[in-house]
Design a protein that fits this description.
Length: 435
């Protein structure tokens, strides 16, 4: 998008700041200007909230074609057995599932994705979803896992070729899968590689009590599963490790996303809070589906740590809507401001995946853009023009703190780098949004 375009909205949220009745001008993939009131030539989007794009910090798009989640009612390892079986039964549909998952995410208002990729995917599955004009935005984390020495070295190769592959338009990361599936040495190697090339890293951790039992004692349902698969070895989990040991190792990566963390204890939360390069990714509906105990995200927020939100995959969740996750959280936590939820569903995920822009730089720019009535931040703007447009359940919306994710509110538009993805535009004059 070369020409700039202005939109007038009732509510705007940029950099976690709420503005009412403003015109925002975007162009060249960036926010150029924000000014009060309805500027001449601005397209009026009506009674909506335009918020900086939602970020799904954790998913596995390869399962996007599942019509319904794999039942989560039994033991966790029973669910894993069924996931492995499902993958075996649908071996050749990875590319189609990835495209379907990205399209579904865009429809749901998600603009940036933290994606875990296993095998059978190609870069074009991400870069040519609708056309090459419409960019996939996100990080593709190559998953590595394995417990035997041969497997560990083979998976190191896989990670290395992934991160050094030169498909310029894909942001890459590494994901050692989980403590029960990934040898400590492989996790260590993945961290070293992430350091070397400056990429982010994602790892499932402290997801179940069974995982804690395996790490501490080498017993329980995971031992049964590994024995059944011929992978059990007496030396594997003899170190009596805890999640905090993994956190300290993962803290050495340039940025790390700790997936789930359902059973992190106070010491681990305090450690996480002290590491600004680490983000806990909470997947609310998946967490609920497995019937875990209360998730510690509020404690981490209290301690000043970073919490982002993910959907996880359609193997444990009915859809890939980050917006639906935020609605779910809003209903469960009526005393939490919806702007706080938005921060977790947008800013926190963006920083975890893309890195933190220098706060001073950003602050100066934002103030410059907002305080000066007709200020232009011009070419130096680093605020991307990725937006989610939310139509409130009742119009006009009086208090976004309470209504942004209220039941009945919905996503009516998605803008990626200034382009309307939802609804797709027939011409460049603006979206058809019914009022
Ligand atoms: Zn996951």
């Amino acid at each position: 998008m070369n020409d700039s375009q202005s939109y007038h909205v009732e509510w705007l949220v940029i950099q976690d700041q709420l503005h009412s009745n403003v015109t925002v001008r975007i162009g060249d993939g960036r926010v150029i200007e924000i000014q009060p009131g309805h500027a001449a030539n601005a397209i009026d989007l009506g009674s909506v909230a335009m918020v900086q794009g939602l970020v799904n910090a954790h998913t596995h798009l390869e399962f996007s074609q599942l019509r319904q989640p794999i039942p989560t009612t039994g033991r966790f390892t029973d669910w894993i057995r069924k996931v492995v079986q499902s993958r075996r039964e649908n071996p050749s549909t990875v590319g189609g599932a990835i495209r379907a998952g990205i399209a579904e995410s865009w429809q749901a208002g998600t603009t940036l994705i933290g994606e875990i990729a296993t095998i059978g995917w190609r870069p074009q599955d991400y870069t040519e979803v609708i056309s090459t004009e419409v960019p996939f935005q996100g990080v593709v984390f190559q998953e590595v896992l394995g417990l035997s020495p041969e497997r560990v070295s083979q998976q190191q190769q896989l990670a290395r070729s992934h991160v050094t592959d030169s498909h310029a338009s894909l942001s890459r990361g590494i994901s050692p899968h989980a403590p029960y599936s990934t040898h400590w040495d492989l996790v260590t190697a993945a961290v070293a590689m992430a350091q070397q090339i400056g990429s982010p890293l994602a790892m499932h951790l402290a997801e179940t009590t069974a995982e804690l039992e395996l790490l501490a004692l080498g017993t329980g349902e995971f031992r049964e599963l590994l024995t059944e698969w011929g992978l059990w070895h007496a030396d594997l989990f003899g170190e009596s490790r805890q999640p905090i040991d993994y956190l300290k190792l993962l803290a050495q990566a340039p940025r790390s996303l700790i997936i789930h963390g359902n059973y992190l204890d106070e010491e681990s939360l305090q450690f996480l809070a002290s590491q600004p390069q680490m983000t806990l990714v909470y997947c609310p509906r998946t967490h609920a589906a497995f019937g875990h105990t209360e998730h510690p995200w509020q404690r981490l927020v209290e301690l000043g740590g970073q919490v982002a939100i993910g959907t996880d995959s359609r193997a444990s969740n009915p859809d890939l809507s980050l917006f639906a996750e935020l609605q779910f959280l809003a209903a469960r936590h009526p005393r939490v401001s919806h702007l706080q939820l938005l921060k977790m569903g947008s800013t926190a995920g963006r920083q975890a995946l893309n890195g933190r822009q220098s706060p001073d730089h950003l602050q100066a720019q934002t103030e410059h853009a907002l305080v000066t009535e007709r200020a232009s931040v011009g070419e130096t703007s680093i605020i991307p023009s990725d937006f989610t447009i939310i139509r409130p359940a009742t119009s006009p919306m009086r208090d976004p703190h309470q209504e942004l994710f209220a039941p009945g509110s919905q996503v009516c538009g998605t803008i990626l780098q200034g382009n309307w993805i939802k609804p797709m535009l027939a011409n460049a004059n603006g979206p058809e949004i019914d009022r």
